[in-house]
């Protein structure tokens, strides 16, 4: 299989890649929305393990071997997300654009720039 970049690949192609992988193994019967959401959450937990005891600064300075492992866990999360989108026939791009528009209204840049929420007055990072 060829190695492609984000600039060369569409969301649709990723969904097709996952659908083909699942179909070739006859796994659709296991890929209920419930099971996929659970698997996605488990993989997200495995992703978090790489950062569990690190400071914010340390998490930004991981070495290449850890970055590779993080990439693999992130890929698992994305693969399950694509499979969940396939299972429920959710258009990922439309969902992301709609959610970002909702977030823009909820968190206007001029009010939240450099702040994580209404009560954040520190702006500090650990």
Short structural description:
The chain is mainly alpha-helical.
Protein traits:
126 residues; mainly alpha; Helix Hairpins; 6 helices; 63% helix
- How many distinct beta strands? 0
Helix and strand sequence = HHHHHH
Q: Kindly provide the name of the CATH class of the domain at 10-90.
A: Mainly Alpha
N-C termini distance: 41 Å
Main sheet, how many strands, which sense, barrel? none
User: What structural category arises from helix and sheet content?
Assistant: mainly alpha
Strand content: under 5%
- What low-confidence regions span 5 or more consecutive residues with pLDDT below 50? none
Mean pLDDT: 94
CATH topology-level fold name of the domain at 10-90: Helix Hairpins
Number of helical stretches of at least 4 residues:
6
Helix content: 55-70%
Radius of gyration using CA atoms only: 18 Å
Question: What would CATH call the architecture of the domain at 10-90?
Answer: Orthogonal Bundle
| CATH superfamily grouping of the domain at 10-90 | MazG-like
């Amino acid at each position: 299989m060829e190695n492609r970049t984000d600039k060369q690949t569409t969301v649709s192609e990723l969904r097709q890649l996952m659908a083909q992988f699942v179909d070739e193994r006859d796994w659709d019967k296991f890929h209920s929305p419930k099971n996929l959401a659970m698997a996605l959450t488990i993989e997200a937990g495995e992703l978090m393990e790489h950062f569990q005891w690190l400071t914010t600064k340390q998490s930004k300075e991981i070495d290449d071997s850890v970055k590779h492992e993080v990439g693999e866990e992130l890929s698992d999360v994305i693969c399950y997300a694509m499979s969940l989108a396939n299972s429920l026939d959710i258009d990922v791009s439309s969902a992301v654009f709609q959610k970002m528009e909702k977030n823009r209204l909820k968190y206007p840049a001029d009010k939240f720039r450099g702040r994580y929420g209404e009560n954040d007055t520190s702006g500090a990072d650990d």
